[in-house]
Specification:
heterodimer, A: 446 residues, alpha/beta, four-stranded parallel sheet, 14 helices, rod-shaped, B: 471 residues, 17 helices
């Protein structure tokens, strides 16, 4: 796969990145070679994305085509403009010489000035120019916040403007040649200032330096082509007036056409270099590249979550249980030191208004202490069922629900958490035991 | 098929087994219930690396009949290797043993044992019975001491009981385990099951690699956010019939909303990156991360101090000022001009950035004939610093937030820090940031790539150093 990126592809890339940014997701694909250079990996992503959604590619193609039409129109306009401007300036009807100052000043001086502005702007004001360039960019490109294509667009537009400049100068050259070939032209120069022919000769020689001073009028020809209105055309030497045209053509070629050609080549070089080696250094491109080349850790589960959970039991309230007589206390072995058992019994009797039987035989039922911070196991419920079988269906079975132990405090246990109580209440209700009750431990009852 | 390391997470009901699985597998969707006994079946979580299954963690139901199970195992007289199978055969028709049979399934497949115990509660007989059952089964076993409450009173008795029956005992708080702690656990598993050592080391290295990659990506998202805020502009159409002041304030509020949206979007991307999609991006006023970006408290506590801003202002002034103004298409109000330090200092007192608004006769787009009121790009560099600071706080909190935690409301509310991170930066670190701002204020600047790389390195190092911070 070619790693060179066309302007259309760069524009499409930005558009796709922009779209995935809006969606907060980057379509993932498996790249053939994750160790390939960044532009190649990103190209694979582009090609893959295009198969899924061709719209950004179409929009990018429209943007690039629009620029091409703009370039052609601008080129034609420039060619005609140059031709028209030169043809207008080279109008000679026999009674007034064509003033080379106007020709050089407008067609060469103006262009040199624009080159100067370009040089200054590229150093000081390039950002202002880029703002102007932005006005001509398609909205698709302007809407991007981190466009990889923007530098390429800038150089493309720069090149287009320089090409238009070349065509403008071509128009001037064509018009001048056409006029030289098909009309009798007579050039002269005029000034109000105290400038002699020698002065003009020095200027002409300086301007002609790039082509070795040849094809420029000599001192005599310059002196003989000076326009002095009071003297009329009588003293003008016809050969001298015709000697200017090669100089003017070479001036347009050297100071108008060639600089634009050089700039167009430079712009084209930068443009193609960007296409061959796009940077892709924005954080977004970097993220995309990372996502494409790195194998993520994937976690998967064996089955759906719903099937792994039991349905929650409905909320229930156990009916209140009034013990019909003294109860026998059943305390699990490891929740209270033996030394504190008597004190604990006393606290139960005083705090809950319950009578505890001295022996199980004298009891009307059982008071079983359960730490309800522990979950109700199947085994705990089975134990309660077995206890019921043991004491028979008519005796009371009261659960004293306690919280975490408070071994050093006066209250033995913390009160149970309401959530724990609720869980036990639900579980106990599944036993369907009418003589089963639940009594939460209360600190203030003591 | 290649056998991959597999570990069953076992324990008493409601001890935090699912939280441990959730944290280990970075899966926030593992159902963590406060009601015990809700998990009926084993749930297998497979971690795939480079397209291949690499590690299996199995969430199991809790023991329901530890005493009866132990009694059966103690009475078993056949070959040890057939004990689990025989137990399952013997109880297969007993509904009350459903959970116990289910949790034995991975043990029949010789999975390693991760026994989770809540060491913040007293040790009871049922716990001893469970431990004894697992000891009798004889598979490699590691006990994880989880702390559901902030209580270490019972730790010693737990350690004594576990040390007698388990190959290794480790503390692992499923609600606060950092990435480093998870990696230590993998290391412990490697020493527990030497035959899997190579595979587990490879998994660990991949995890570490991926952690570093995530940090890299998080930093890129952060840089993207800063870049957007640096260049952001909001415009509303100017209505000559309404008071100008009111419209200026309206434009400023639109700008602030746009910046808030950008921040929220980045937070969402970070949450996706760290697989914490259910965590909140913003919250009610209160702590630093809950307050909205332009709140007075945020501007007092985050970003650079006034003294630091004065230095930063000097650095970002000059070239940056001119560059930034030009870069933003000329519609600038002196971004990072020499007054940046003063503005930054003032924003600290004023509880928010000073946002310039301007009527522009050149609105662009379709409405050529009408003026716009435009706010931004930002004048006050402190906005970037505050945003960076908040983002770093959010990120360090997010990357260290254990997936097993379900108290999502605490994510933004319980902040261990009461100030930001950037105030602790050295001069050299501050320079990296200011150079980045200077370069990126102008998209044409050839220094953008270089300064981006420096900033990315700085932020990556910073986040890496904070990736062990306990939440």
């Amino acid at each position: 796969m070619s790693t060179s990126w066309s302007l259309t592809e760069l524009t499409e890339f930005d558009a796709r990145l922009h779209a995935s940014r809006r969606l907060d997701s980057i379509p993932s694909i498996s790249v053939d070679d994750g160790s390939a250079p960044k532009p190649e990996v990103l190209k694979q992503w582009l090609v893959h994305s295009r198969q899924q959604d061709p719209e950004p590619a179409r929009l990018a193609a429209v943007a690039v085509q629009s620029e091409a039409w703009l370039r052609i129109s601008l080129g034609l306009f420039s060619l005609l403009g140059g031709f028209g401007a030169a043809a207008a300036l080279l109008r000679y009807e026999g009674y007034r010489l064509i003033n080379i100052s106007a020709f050089l000043g407008i067609l060469i001086g103006g262009q040199l000035l624009s080159l100067l502005v370009l040089a200054v702007s590229s150093f000081w004001l390039r950002h202002r120019l880029s703002r102007l360039q932005k006005l001509f960019l398609p909205k698709l490109v302007r809407s991007l916040t981190a466009p990889e294509s923007l530098p390429a667009w800038r150089w493309r537009l720069f090149t287009s403007f320089q090409q238009a400049g070349m065509l403008f100068n071509s128009g001037i050259l064509l018009a001048t040649l056409w006029k030289v070939l098909t009309a009798d032209l007579a050039f002269g120069w005029a000034t109000t200032l105290d400038v002699t022919g020698q002065g003009i000769h020095r200027i002409v020689q300086t301007l002609a330096l790039p082509w070795g001073g040849r094809f420029a009028p000599d001192l005599t020809q310059i002196q003989q082509s000076r326009i002095v209105l009071k003297d009329g055309l009588a003293h003008i030497d016809a050969a001298s007036t015709a000697a200017w045209w090669p100089f003017l053509l070479l001036c347009v070629l050297t100071y108008g056409f060639l600089p634009r050609l050089a700039l167009a080549l430079f712009g084209s070089f930068r443009f193609h270099r960007l296409q061959r080696h796009p940077a892709f250094s924005s954080p977004e491109s970097e993220r995309l590249y990372q996502n494409l080349t790195r194998q993520p850790l994937v976690f998967s589960s064996s089955d759906g979550q719903a099937s792994t959970s039991s349905p929650s039991l409905p909320p229930v309230d156990l009916p209140p249980l009034e013990p019909s007589g003294p109860l026998s206390l059943k305390l699990p072995p490891d929740i209270l030191p033996e030394s504190r058992e008597t004190a604990f019994r006393n606290r139960i009797q005083s705090g809950f208004d319950l009578k505890l039987a001295d022996t199980p035989e004298n009891a009307a039922g059982i008071l079983k202490v359960i730490e309800v911070w522990q979950p109700p196991l199947e085994e705990s419920l089975r134990e309660l069922r077995e206890l019921r079988d043991e004491i028979g269906p008519d005796r009371d079975l009261l659960i004293l629900a306690v919280g975490l132990p408070n071994p050093t405090g006066p209250h033995f246990f913390h009160p149970p958490e309401p959530a724990d109580l609720d869980i036990w209440r639900r579980k106990l209700s599944t036993l369907r035991d009418s003589r089963l009750g639940l009594l939460p431990w209360r600190e203030n009852s003591l | 098929m290649k056998k991959i390391p597999a570990y069953a997470v076992l324990g008493h009901p409601n001890e935090g087994k699912s939280s441990v699985v959730s944290t280990l597998t970075e899966n926030e969707r593992v159902k963590v219930s406060t009601t015990p006994g809700e998990t009926l079946r084993c749930k297998r979580f497979v971690i795939h690396l480079e397209g291949e299954a690499a590690l299996e963690i199995i969430d199991t139901p809790g023991f329901q009949n530890p005493a009866a199970t132990l009694k059966w195992f103690e009475a078993w007289e056949g070959p040890e290797s057939e004990m689990v199978d025989a137990f399952m055969q013997a109880h297969r028709d007993q509904e009350s043993f459903h959970h116990d049979l289910e949790l034995m399934t991975p043990l029949r497949e010789r999975a390693g044992i991760l026994y989770v115990a809540d060491a913040s509660r007293p040790l009871r007989e049922a716990d001893r019975q469970e431990m004894e059952v697992l000891r009798l089964i004889g598979l490699p076993r590691l006990a994880l001491l989880n702390f559901k409450r902030d209580n270490r009173e019972y730790l010693t008795e737990w350690q004594e009981a576990l040390n007698r029956r388990f190959n290794l005992v480790r503390e692992f708080n499923a609600h606060h385990a950092t990435f480093q702690e998870r990696m230590s656990l993998l290391e412990a598993l490697a020493s527990l099951t030497p035959e899997q050592e190579a595979a587990l080391k490879s998994i660990r290295s991949k995890f570490e690699q991926q952690w570093a990659q995530r940090i890299e990506e998080a930093v890129l998202i952060l840089e993207e956010l800063l870049l957007k805020v640096l260049r952001h502009r909001t415009g509303i159409q100017y209505d000559p019939g309404k008071p100008e002041k009111e419209q200026f304030e309206q434009a400023r509020e639109a700008y602030r909303n746009a910046i808030r949206d950008l921040e929220e979007k980045s937070r969402r991307q970070w949450r996706n990156l760290y697989q914490h999609t259910e965590l909140p991006g913003s919250g009610e006023a209160g702590e630093l991360l809950q307050e909205e970006l332009f709140a007075e408290k945020v501007w007092h506590l985050l970003g650079f101090s006034r003294h630091q801003l004065a230095l930063v202002g000097a650095l970002t002034a000059g070239a940056a000022g001119v560059g930034a103004d030009l870069a933003t298409g000329g519609i600038s109000f002196g971004v990072f001009t020499a007054g940046a330090a003063i503005l930054g200092g003032m924003s600290g007192w004023m509880g928010g950035p000073k946002l310039g608004a301007k009527r522009l006769p050149f609105p662009g787009n379709r409405t050529w004939a009408r003026e716009q009121i435009v706010v931004g790009p930002v004048k006050d560099p402190q906005l970037l610093f505050v945003l960076l600071d908040r983002s770093l706080l959010y990120l360090t909190r997010l990357m260290n937030w254990a997936h097993g935690r379900r108290d999502h409301e605490a994510f933004l509310a319980e902040m261990s820090r009461e100030s930001g991170l950037v105030r602790e930066w050295s001069d050299a670190q501050r320079k990296v940031l200011t150079r980045w701002i200077r370069a990126h204020a102008s998209p044409e600047n050839p220094q953008t790539t270089m300064t981006s790389q420096s900033l990315r390195r700085l932020l990556q190092d910073l986040l890496t150093s904070h990736s062990t911070e306990n939440t």
